[in-house]
């Protein structure tokens, strides 16, 4: 049995009034309006054609029924957003004294896992950097370092010379919220960085000073956009045209580590 709030308006006219508001005042796109209409039609069917506006317990029961039908989290979240908007509208219009839809908590929506590259793809991209040129030596070192540590690109660009302890095989990283952590660095990446430091970094700096580990041909530190461009160039050389982004490299690190 559906319970109702004292002095609650009838559900169907309330829903129609809300849809008119969305159509005429909010100017919702036709697709959004159609989704609201479909969601509210299912809610009215659940409550009953002549029912008054349901209370909090029945809102929970309705959401439970959506889960029981096997709807995805994304679909359930949309239904719940429709209900929350309906009740918020009626509250603003003075037709409700309180908002029972506040009890509804949107389900976590799981997005598709990021794609990852195979180990062979990663190696082809790294080999595409020309090791006979200082910039190519640096690019190989950056790619090896990123793949070996799983850093974010913004973190990679911020690494300073003093952050790397090659003897211990670790790097100190400053991440989101200015929080620091110590990350292991694999031996292959350490050798690539050592080759870079042995001559390529000095050749790029041309006598200029920089506290950052990886520098551009102008002697400045890398930007996220600069590294994206670098990665894109080498991926195209390697014939890897799909999903070659810094985030995918990072996810590839995590995937290969688990494997």
Give structural notes:
With 259 residues, the protein is mainly α. The two termini are 52 Å apart. Residues 109-114 have low confidence and may be disordered. It has helices at 11-24, 30-47, 56-68, 73-92, 119-127, 134-149, 153-158, 187-205, 224-238, 246-258, and strands at residues 164-165, 170-174, 180-184. A three-stranded antiparallel beta sheet has the order 1-2-3.
Strand order of the largest sheet: 1-2-3
Structural class by sheet pairing and helices: mainly alpha
Q: Runs with pLDDT <50, length 5+?
A: 109-114
Distance between the termini: 52 Å
Helix content: 55-70%
Secondary-structure element series: HHHHHHHEEEHHH
Report mean pLDDT, rounded to a whole number: 84
Please report the total strand number as a whole number. 3
Main beta-sheet annotation? 3 strands, antiparallel
**Molecular shape:** elongated
Question: For the CA atoms, what is the radius of gyration?
Answer: 28 Å
Strand content: under 5%
Number of helical stretches of at least 4 residues = 10
Concise structural overview:
This protein has 259 residues and is mainly α.
Give the helix/strand layout.
Elements: H1 11-24, H2 30-47, H3 56-68, H4 73-92, H5 119-127, H6 134-149, H7 153-158, E1 164-165, E2 170-174, E3 180-184, H8 187-205, H9 224-238, H10 246-258
Helix pairs in contact: 1-2, 5-6, 5-9, 6-8, 6-10
Structural features:
three-stranded antiparallel β-sheet; mainly alpha; 10 helices; 259 residues; 5% strand
């Amino acid at each position: 049995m559906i319970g109702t709030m004292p002095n609650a308006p009838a559900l169907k006219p309330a829903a129609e009034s809300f849809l008119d508001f969305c159509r005429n005042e909010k100017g919702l796109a036709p697709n959004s309006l159609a989704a609201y209409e479909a969601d509210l039609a299912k809610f009215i069917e659940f409550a009953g054609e002549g029912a008054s506006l349901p209370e909090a317990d029945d809102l929970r029961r309705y959401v439970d029924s959506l889960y029981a039908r096997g709807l995805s989290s994304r679909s359930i979240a949309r239904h719940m957003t429709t209900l929350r908007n309906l009740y918020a509208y009626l509250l603003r219009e003075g037709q409700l004294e309180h908002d029972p839809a506040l009890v509804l908590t949107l389900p976590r929506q799981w997005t598709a896992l990021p794609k990852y590259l195979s180990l062979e793809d990663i190696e082809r991209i790294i080999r595409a950097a020309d090791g006979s040129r200082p910039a190519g030596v640096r690019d190989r070192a950056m790619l090896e370092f990123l793949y070996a540590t799983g850093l974010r690109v913004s973190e990679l660009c911020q690494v300073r010379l003093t952050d790397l302890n090659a003897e211990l095989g670790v790097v100190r990283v400053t991440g989101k919220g200015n929080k620091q952590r110590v990350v292991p660095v694999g031996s292959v990446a350490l050798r690539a960085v050592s080759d870079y430091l042995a001559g390529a970094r000095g050749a790029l700096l041309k006598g200029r000073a920089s506290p950052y580990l990886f520098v551009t041909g102008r002697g400045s530190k890398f930007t996220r956009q600069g590294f994206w461009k670098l990665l894109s160039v080498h991926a195209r050389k390697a014939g890897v045209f799909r999903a070659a982004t810094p985030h995918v490299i990072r996810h590839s690190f995590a995937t290969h580590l688990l494997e």
